[in-house]
Amino acid sequence: xxxxxxxxxxxxxxxLESQLDxxxxxxxxxxxxxxxxxxxYPIESIIPQGTDSRLGFSxxxxxxxxxxxxxxxxxxxxxxxxxGEFNKLIKSGLSKASAGAVLTTIVSSLGIPxxxxxxxxxxxxxxxxxxxxxxxxxxxxxx
Length: 143
Known about the structure:
Structural class: mainly alpha
Order of helices and strands: HHHHHHHH
Number of helices: 8
Number of domains: 1
């Protein structure tokens, strides 16, 4: 799994967004997670700072859909709060942001390491397909 630059990751996200529907993205996410771990990288390295790192264990054993369900709740805390980065995008009129914009927001606001971009690409595409408003609503507590 070669390391990507942010520009390469944005290009990959744009291609993936145009090629696959949301359901087909979960197997892509699962492959990316497995490749990431096979390279020896700890899944905990993509957990946003300030969240429970013990969740890394749950993420390791997850299929693509379950991984997204767990990981999206971690992202929600950082990105969907009233002062969160997604709320800033939504307020600026980008509630249906492109996968590239979502990817850039996740990476820049959460400090995701470059080596993890291959995992974050399908995550960003899924969020872009759902829409920022939809993602924040879907991941609310109790849903």
